[in-house]
Amino acid sequence: MANLPEPFLWREPQFSDLEAVAQLEALVFPDPWPQGLFATEVGQPNRFQRVVLAPSGELAAYLFAAWQVDDLHILKVATHPQYQGRGLATALLQAALEEAENKGGRSLTLEVRVSNRRAIELYRRLGYLIAGRRTRYYQDGEDAYVMSRPISRSLLDRFLFR
């Protein structure tokens, strides 16, 4: 199981978390999702979601992902600036990978701003590759890289599905 750095705790998000999620979203993204969009995700089937809480109970990070056939699509992942560099996003992404492996997924995908070098480097270290580019994907016109991480399979599976 993915290891979350101590003394942080994680769990599935609850509706009571959404105000803090929306505040963190607005803090770290230039084009944040509104709180209502997160509300449509909580408790839905075919989702993988986690919030990370600091020892104080403050929201430190979150991840929202949705299954698209056999691909777990990372919709949102963010860490509060106060807690960046402590491995929270890495742990969240590792947990998503484990979820995908356990449910028979074939890949994980996400979009990231082409200018977000720090995030791109993190994703590369975790095995994601640039699979494409979405032109003018963001509201401000910036492009996004589509990054994908294949799920490791048995030798037989690799032979049959290459």
What are its keywords?
162 residues, globular, alpha+beta, 7 strands, seven-stranded mixed β-sheet, disordered C terminus, 30% helix, Aminopeptidase
What can you see in these coordinates?
This protein has 162 residues and is an alpha+beta fold. It has a single domain (9-160), classed as 3-Layer(aba) Sandwich (Aminopeptidase), CATH 3.40.630. 30% of the residues lie in helices and 30% in strands. It has a seven-stranded mixed sheet with strand order 1-2-3-4-5-7-6, sandwiched between helices. Helix 1 crosses helix 2 (35-41). The protein starts with 8 loop residues before the first strand and ends with a helix. 25% of the residues are buried.
